[in-house]
Amino acid sequence: MSISRRILMMTSLMAGAAFMAGPVAAQDPVRIAIVAKSLGNGFFEAAARGAEEAAKEVGNAEIIYTGPTSTTAEGQIEVINSLIAQRVDAIAISANDPDAVVPALKKAMQRGITVVSWDSGVAPEGREMHLAPSSDALIGQTIIKLAADHLPEGGKVAVLSATSTSTNQNIWIAEMKKVMDQYPDIELVATVYGDDLADKSYRETQGLLQSYPDLDAIIAPTSVGIVAAAQAVQDAGKAGQVNVTGIGLPSEMAGAVENGVSQSFAIWNPVDLGYATTMLAYNLATDQATAEPGAEIAMGRLGTATLDDDNQAAMSEPFTYDASNIEEFKDIF
Amino acid sequence: MSLAPPTPTHAPPAGRKLPNRLNGRSARVLKSWEVLLAVIAVAIFFANTWASPYFLDPWNLSDATFNFTEKAMIAFAMALLIISGEIDLSVAGIIALASTAMGWAVQYGAGTGELVAIGVGVGAICGAFNGVLVTRFGLPSIVVTIGTMSLFRGISYIVLGDQAFNGYPESFAFFGRGYVFWVISFELVLFAVFALIYALVLHGTNFGRHIYAIGNNPTAATFSGIRVERVKMALFLLTGLMSGIAAVCLTARLGSTRPSIAFGWELEIVTMVVLGGVSILGGAGSILGVVIAALIMGMVTFGLGLLNVPGIVMSIFIGGLLIGVIALPRMVQLLRKGRLT
Fold it and tell me: Who among B57, B164, B301 is closest to A85 (CB)?
């Protein structure tokens, strides 16, 4: 049965190709579908804006921004099926379920569609490559740099993490420690755990402020912790004295930046992510690049993406948000 | 269309087939309803063909059937339940719980046969639970099933959190991704078989007649010797069972279980049933109408998807269609009586 199905699929593909060959000219735009986890989410709307920017830059690309109304795998499968039916040239998806969308995406690849995943990845057999917004090493390097940039004469910093068993945070802190020797005047005095709970993070920050009255910065590589730490520093009247930085969401951190509690913090930039994904999808769909381990694929103004053994790449170090750009991004995500 | 002017009503000749409702005119309206739906379905088919060059392709149409097959299986049982005057809003919750149970069993090495048994079994148990609450305790079904909707899905959320169950066996995938012949998927065949079975049960058996009788007047039905509670219990069990079967198909198709699975399906299923001409007040409706309504909803979703219309606009379109189709015959009726000028 599967063989006869394959033959039928081949014939229908050939019939489709014959049908396409007539009216289609070489100048037809490359149609790239950006599939969001769900529509109406500011993060993905921003990524779509980046995708449009990339399409404008390459000239002959057309962006189809789409996605289900709720973040379900079955909703995304319906979307993928309609994209396959339209014979788009590329599908770039942020998956609601890394496994459930694989059969539909495999079918897309069998029919000659370039499939890449971005933000939230798809299992390797269901995509040609995955673009992660950043890598553990880049995040670790960024969080210490954020603190050091505002301490030119050195100083004492502490880390407020999530739980002591949080895989992501532990890796980021380990990566941070690897590059600490580049900042000889910065002293890491303590690492405390707020368990990603607002009230516990707040109390742990209060403890830090009491134990180390001359503390200069708190690094919180967690979006829950950074908000709680900023609140605790402000309530202690130490705004401007202790800089709260790390990984956070612009919408939640806008107040802290405006009050001067946080000089800057970082997280990936969705506009850049949409832009880079579109560039990669365009280059793969037009056969200017091949997704294979070790390949270097151009991402326009963001340089090149280098694929690892699983055909994954990291876009860049997290994007820094401060008083100069927080207004623009706080409404996005 | 057969919205024909009413012929003068005479006493039906002896030996005539009993209508689904004792009122002759509504039987005719019901008949014309299916004709109206069929006309709309054909119109949507041609509109889609005209709007997108990709619509008329056997494989594309085959892919699109997955938009409605699983929902329609539940809609058949739901139609019977609504005709009897009850409703089950927990069907999507049952899918989530049945799928979670299957995913849990996979972690302990369950094979394909056991998985199907577990999925269908959990569905049936959930349906029976609803049935007992409604028939034994005399609670209103809309309240009971709003409660169990959260209860069933809530258990899935407790078990899974933000995790997923996967690792389903290869052979299990056939129920969701298998093809019986050419573009005809297993799910499509299942849909057709269930449509036939439900049409036969509703329109050709005593059980079916009892459902109409209960929906029209439960007190009269009781005095006519129909075991109202028992029929209702059977219908809740059946709806749970069908939700379990749909859970097997959907889980096999996705190959993974998340607690958000089938989120929001209950309203799409009820929409399908009501669009199919089943009276939400009970007592009237046909399986043919539900089948056409399923095709309409599938085609609208797929057709608008081909034009990359966002899902929210699709919901608006389906909602408008529902109100339009329900309002139209009523307006014609009022016009004829001269109340609306």
Answer: B57
pTM recorded for the entire structure: 0.78
- What structural domains and CATH numbers belong to chain A? 2-132+270-315 (3.40.50.2300), 136-267 (3.40.50.2300)
**A30 bridge partner residues:** A61
**In the predicted model, what is the mean pLDDT of chain B?**
88
8 Å CB contact between B90 and B81: no
Token output for B221: 């039905």
Question: Can you give the residue range of the structural domain that contains B273?
Answer: 69-286
The reply to whether B22 falls in a domain is no
Asked if the structure places residue B5 within a domain, the reply is: no
> Residue B14: its pLDDT value, please?
53
| A73 at B interface, C-beta within 8 A | yes
CB of A112 within 8 Å of a chain B CB? The answer is no
Nearest CA in chain B to A96: B258
Residue B14 lies in a domain: no
What's the total number of domains in chain B?
A: 1
pLDDT in tens, B85-110: 999 999 999 999 999 999 999 999 88
